[in-house]
From TrEMBL:
Its EC number is 1.2.4.-. Pfam families: Transket_pyr, Transketolase_C. Signal peptide: none annotated. Residues 6-181 form the Transketolase-like pyrimidine-binding domain. The keyword Zinc does not apply. InterPro entries: THDP-binding, Transketo_C/PFOR_II, Transketolase-like_Pyr-bd, Transketolase_C. This is Alpha-ketoacid dehydrogenase subunit beta. Keywords: Oxidoreductase, Thiamine pyrophosphate. Its cofactor is thiamine diphosphate. The keyword Transport does not apply. It comes from Streptomyces sindenensis.
Length: 326
């Protein structure tokens, strides 16, 4: 067993390196991914080791980047494209939802587009709008796309491997403020299927459902609640499309209470779909309504207001208290 402690950023870098080394059809494309190694250094050193034909610096043209990746995938390549910041993805949204997501169905299954679109997302780094967005629900709503987000280094390493190996397009959301969080990575043992939720902490009184950057917040909330005698379960969803509703249902039936936490605005967020589905599935097991904690329905604020906007420990614990009060 080869276990190494590394940051999420390092885990992604090692995973991309392995993908390039294993399959000559794997390419990496994006703005500043080559010589610079990416804004967050996720692709650091890869162009030096694999060459400019495998790790390609592109023009500042997101639509062109994804469109080119689609063409390469049609020719048998497995492109990994980086969108430099979350809010920059929208020029490529047309290519992603009308071409990338639809080609498999349009071709009656004869054409596959194994493209991974990497998107650093979320706040917490003091950046302005278009650099701190959480647009995952916009992509999860589109049939034909897989949408995932790791919360720790081990998942970052293995989920990237699984995304690259997928014959369907994967939108890979990377929680940028967690890039430097470290954890143990077993590089020889796959933790589980790409779209399987994982219980990050066992509990019996209430279930917190989260993914990506909010898993750490929920674990901190569960630890704080334990000091008050509350037993909180934390479920790391890992995938927003498809969603492992069976895992949520199992936990909901066990605890009777569910709070969904995500950084994106609550309004029309992924938590709404989870709340509705779990209410349908678990109505007679629930002791309280499914509650949601998330961002506000406003444009992402300036850095000085970021802490007020982002769901933190207090807002999660408040929802826990409200649910337990029913």
């Amino acid at each position: 067993m080869a276990v190494e402690k590394m940051s999420i950023a390092k885990a992604l870098n090692e995973s991309l390196r392995l993908a390039l080394d294993t399959d000559p059809k794997v390419l990496i494309m994006g703005e500043d991914v080559g010589k610079l190694g990416g804004v967050f250094r996720i692709t650091d050193g890869l162009q030096k080791d694999f060459g400019e034909d495998r790790v390609i610096d592109t023009p500042l043209a997101e639509s062109g980047i994804v469109g080119t990746a689609i063409g390469l995938a049609l020719r048998g390549y497995r492109p990994i494209v980086e969108i430099q910041f979350d809010g920059f993805v929208f020029p490529a949204y047309d290519q992603i939802v009308t071409q990338l997501a639809k080609m498999h169905a349009r071709a009656l299954g004869k054409v596959k587009l194994p493209v991974v679109v990497r998107i650093p997302y979320g706040g917490g780094i003091g950046a302005v709008e278009h650099h701190s967005e959480s647009p995952e629900a916009l992509f999860a709503h589109v049939a034909g796309l897989k949408v995932v987000s790791p919360s720790n280094a081990s998942d970052a390493y293995w989920m990237m491997q699984q995304a690259v190996q997928s014959d369907d397009p994967v939108i890979f959301f990377e929680p940028k403020r967690r890039y430097w969080d470290k954890g143990e990575v077993d590089t020889e043992s796959i933790p589980g299927p790409l779209h399987k939720a994982v219980t990050a902490r066992e509990g019996g009184d209430l279930t917190l459902v989260a993914y990506g950057p909010m898993v750490k917040v929920c674990l901190e909330a569960a630890a704080a609640a334990q000091e008050e005698g509350k037993s909180i379960e934390v479920l790391d969803l890992r995938s927003m499309a498809p969603i492992d509703f069976d895992a949520i249902q199992k936990s909901a039936e066990k605890t009777g209470r569910v709070v969904v936490v995500h950084e994106a605005p609550v309004f029309y967020g992924s938590g709404a779909e989870i709340a509705a589905r779990i209410t349908e599935r678990c109505f007679y097991h629930l002791e309280a309504p499914v509650l949601r904690v998330g961002g506000y329905h406003v444009p992402y604020p300036p850095a000085r207001l970021e802490d007020e906007y982002l769901p933190g420990l207090d807002r999660v614990l408040d929802a826990v208290d409200r649910s337990l009060a029913f």
